[in-house]
């Protein structure tokens, strides 16, 4: 990255450009990894780049109720607002850590269908709409 520092987003729930999750798949034993690996974490064989479907179910979650340490975190103008973080188990079998984009933290449930996208910073997961679910 030409010596540039990686900085945490000023608002971890800020909108991002949705792009496919870039993972990898072993050409020998078919294990999927995220993020992408050059070698399979199971058998050590070569792994090929793979775009992951991005749909799955919430495996576990928690709520970030306090502002992360500063620096590098910079509070948004309106101040810190608690947000949910979770692991989403994708249909490919890999678990991805993501910020959960939900309107109400009381609506978050283990097993709920989610769609995960990547962008700047950490992946984001939002509730899957009908017809979008692949799991």
Automatic annotation (TrEMBL):
<dbReference type="InterPro" id="IPR012340">
    <property type="entry name" value="NA-bd_OB-fold"/>
</dbReference>
<dbReference type="InterPro" id="IPR052513">
    <property type="entry name" value="Thioester_dehydratase-like"/>
</dbReference>
<dbReference type="InterPro" id="IPR002878">
    <property type="entry name" value="ChsH2_C"/>
</dbReference>
<feature type="domain" description="ChsH2 C-terminal OB-fold">
    <location>
        <begin position="52"/>
        <end position="117"/>
    </location>
</feature>
<protein>
    <recommendedName>
        <fullName>ChsH2 C-terminal OB-fold domain-containing protein</fullName>
    </recommendedName>
</protein>
<dbReference type="Pfam" id="PF01796">
    <property type="entry name" value="OB_ChsH2_C"/>
</dbReference>
């Amino acid at each position: 990255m030409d010596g540039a520092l990686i900085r945490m987003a000023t608002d971890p729930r800020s909108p991002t450009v949705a792009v496919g999750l870039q993972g990898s798949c072993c050409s020998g034993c078919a294990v999927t990894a995220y993020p992408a690996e050059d070698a399979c974490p199971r058998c050590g064989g070569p792994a090929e780049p793979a775009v992951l479907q991005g749909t799955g179910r919430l495996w576990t979650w928690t709520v970030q109720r306090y502002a992360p340490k500063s620096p590098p975190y910079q509070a948004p103008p309106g101040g810190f607002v608690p947000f949910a973080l979770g692991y989403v188990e994708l249909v490919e079998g890999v678990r991805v850590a993501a910020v959960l984009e939900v309107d109400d933290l009381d609506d978050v449930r283990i097993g709920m269908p989610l769609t995960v996208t990547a962008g700047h910073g950490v992946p984001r997961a939002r509730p899957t709409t009908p017809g979008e679910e692949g799991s």
